[in-house]
Specification:
The complex is a heterotrimer of chains A (152), B (338) and C (122). Chain A is built from eight helices and no strands. Chain A is an all-alpha fold. In chain A, helix 6 (95-108) runs antiparallel to helix 7 (114-121). Chain A is extended and about 75 Å long. In chain B, the strands form three sheets. In chain B, strands 1-2-10-15-14-11-12 form a seven-stranded mixed beta sheet, with helices on both faces. The longest helix of chain B has 20 residues, at 203-222. The relative contact order of chain B is 0.20. Chain C has 122 residues and is an all-alpha fold. Chain C has one domain (2-115). The longest helix of chain C has 27 residues, at 89-115. Chain C is globular, with a radius of gyration of 17 Å. Chain C starts with a helix and ends in a 7-residue tail after the last helix. The chains are: A mainly alpha (152), B alpha/beta (338), C mainly alpha (122). At the A-C interface, helix 2, helix 3, helix 5, helix 6 and helix 8 of A face helix 1, helix 2, helix 4, helix 5 and helix 6 of C.
């Protein structure tokens, strides 16, 4: 026996009518300027790397590592979650956000010990990124190898 | 002890709420109900090593406070009924370990406190117990890491998300025929209702149909109307869920006066506190009812209250597997006495 | 002047890529983890399609700092290694080129977990 005055479909419609929308424009602007700023920071690091004559291979490594260091440290001192709440994708999408996604669960689960806590949880969010990113790159490499063999 | 209608227990020997205690966390202590709580924590960790131990310590202190106020020794407690949001309800069972009383662990998600009142009152009214302490707790930091994300992860919450309260409430029920004080006179066991809400953030929407079902069952079982109650308090529907509940009642053409409907989750925080849709968690309805509502009843501000706790019966596993979020609700009728 | 223009390009392109992520957050129910995976895999696919390299040449860090840039590095690494070592390059190239970033994240993540404690939210 159901007392419900609404069917699930009608209820879903009612719920979406009564739920206030996220503030779209504000969200896009915040993501835009924070994301852009982090990228400019990366650009500045790249210029610095050029000044240091780090070369074409090592310069990007320097930039990425420096940004990752920044992301993990801001996570550790408890600042990155505040930035993330403000900027959303603006701080999640840059590589600093990737660093945050590794450091945050590791810090959170330190009380579960160094192995099953920190060590395993480092990869709860980053694991999927690495798994699918690396697999996709292998697929691209294999396809490229096939195409190259066919054409030549 | 008798049953009314399909889901309601009428307590022929209604237990008296001999004492009640509430503890709230630092953020809750900056909310509109701050002065009503018996204690406000200055630190989320309570000097413990982990959030889970902190929640356990909060439950222990809260239960102890209720027992002290009720002038009863630990060894005289005949049963502790309670639960929380942790896996295998460790906060409550670890607190029960410290107390040493017989323990009945319960899980009704955020409705656990009212579930405990329904059962504890039945056990006392049925003559199985002379007293029972009912409690429930939640901690933002333990719930967050279990149900959502690590604390330090930079994520945004949607406006319909609720904020798990760091709070605990405990009520000591006693069989004291004829004594003055608040009495639990009837209790309604809700059904698990699912209107196919799949957004695990939108707990107000997932729970409102279950609260509607439970309150409607209570009214029809007892032959009363909502106007027979001075106050109808819901657990943690939040601001959006409260609106949804009013819509459901109006669509079903059951009278529910909006000025008598209070939601604990929507009362716990100021809107500027960035708690989005409002407070939630087992500790929300427990601390707000033990701290605010029961104290107001004792002052004589209102005489009869229907307290309906609501719970969202999801787990991380069920949401990861794409299941919808079923809701549950329990209701007790509490009357003030001369 | 040229340096200023370089920063403007990085700012605008990087900001727009992040706004695509914000669109996914606001318009869909995708979780953060899913969005990050989508970005990396998109970066790999767009690079393979030859679209992303011109964007990197144009915007510099604006295209390499977002996670699509991680995908770009993975794909470029795989392609270059195939040129150099043949078939097995597909298996080594991606990780080799991104090794610094991944290692930094692992090591700094671990160090952070040793030094810092989680903070409760206000």
């Amino acid at each position: 026996m159901s007392r419900q005055p609404y069917t699930p479909d009608e209820y879903r419609e009612l719920v979406s009518r009564l739920t206030p929308p996220s503030r779209m424009l504000r969200g896009y602007w915040r993501a835009f300027w924070v994301g852009g700023t982090i990228c400019c920071l990366g650009q500045a690091l790249t210029l610095w790397a050029e000044q240091l004559n780090l070369g074409e291979i090592t310069a990007p490594m320097f930039t990425t590592s420096a940004l990752v260091f920044l992301g993990t440290t801001l996570t550790g001192i408890g600042v990155y979650d505040v930035i993330g709440k403000y900027a959303g994708a603006g701080s999640a999408i840059p590589v600093t956000g990737f660093a945050n996604s590794m450091a945050a669960p590791a810090i959170e689960f330190q009380r579960e010990g160094p192995i099953t806590g920190v060590g395993a949880r480092l990869f709860t969010l980053a694991g999927p990124v690495l798994a699918y990113g690396i697999s996709a790159s292998v697929a691209v490499g294999v396809v490229y190898w096939l195409v190259k063999g066919w054409v030549l | 002890m008798s049953r009314a209608g399909t889901q309601t227990f009428i307590y022929d020997r209604p237990p008296v709420i001999a004492a009640h205690a509430s503890i709230a966390g630092p953020k809750e202590g900056q909310g509109p109900l701050a002065e009503w709580f018996d204690a406000v924590l200055e630190d989320d960790l309570l000097g413990q090593k982990s959030w889970e131990l902190a929640e356990m310590e909060m439950v222990r202190r809260c239960v102890q406070r209720a027992l002290n106020d009720g002038h009863i020794e630990d060894s005289a407690v005949q049963a502790m009924l309670g639960g929380d949001l942790n896996n295998q309800i460790i906060a409550s069972s670890f607190a029960a370990r410290a107390l040493g009383a017989p323990f009945i662990g319960l899980y009704g998600a955020c409705s656990t406190f009212v579930q405990a009142l329904v059962l504890g009152s039945a056990l006392i009214s049925g003559g199985f117990l002379d007293n029972a302490v009912c409690c429930a707790s939640s901690h933002f930091c333990t719930a967050e890491r279990q149900f959502r994300f690590p604390l330090e992860l930079g994520t945004q919450r949607p406006p319909q998300a609720s904020w798990t309260a760091t709070a605990c409430g405990a009520a000591l029920l006693e069989a004291r025929p004829g004594a003055a004080g608040l009495r639990v006179v009837s209790g309604t066991v809700g059904r698990v209702i699912d209107l196919n809400i799949t957004d695990a953030n939108h707990m107000g929407a997932a729970m409102a149909p279950a609260v509607f079902d439970c309150i409607a069952a209570h009214l029809s079982d007892t032959g009363r109307s909502a106007r027979d109650y001075d106050l109808i308090a819901t657990g943690d529907l939040g601001w959006i869920g409260r609106d949804l509940l009013l819509e459901l009642f109006s669509a079903a053409e059951i009278d529910l006066p909006a000025d008598r409907l209070v939601d604990c989750g929507a009362s716990l925080f100021f809107r500027e506190q960035d708690a989005h849709a409002g407070g939630s968690g087992c500790g929300c309805v427990a601390s707000v009812s033990c701290g605010w509502l029961m104290k107001r009843m004792e002052r004589g501000e209102f005489r009869r209250m229907l307290l309906a706790g609501s719970g969202a019966m999801l787990s991380p596993t069920s949401s990861q597997q794409g299941q919808s979020v079923p809701g549950i609700a329990y209701a007790v009728c509490i009357e003030g006495g001369e | 002047m040229e340096i200023l223009w370089m920063f403007v390009k990085a700012f605008v392109v990087g900001g727009l890529i992040c706004d695509i992520g914000q669109l996914l957050i606001l318009r869909t129910k995708l979780t953060n983890a899913r969005i990050l995976v989508i970005f990396v895999v998109s970066g790999v696919v767009l690079t393979a399609a030859g679209v992303y390299k011109p964007l990197v040449d144009f915007a510099g860090a604006g295209a390499t700092v977002p996670l699509t840039g991680f995908g770009y590095s993975l794909a470029m690494g795989a392609i270059e290694a195939v040129n150099k070592y043949g078939f097995w390059g597909a298996f080594t190239g991606g990780i080799t080129r991104t090794a610094a970033g991944i290692t930094a994240a692992v090591v700094f993540g671990l160090l952070n977990a040793l030094i810092f404690r989680p903070h409760a939210k206000p």
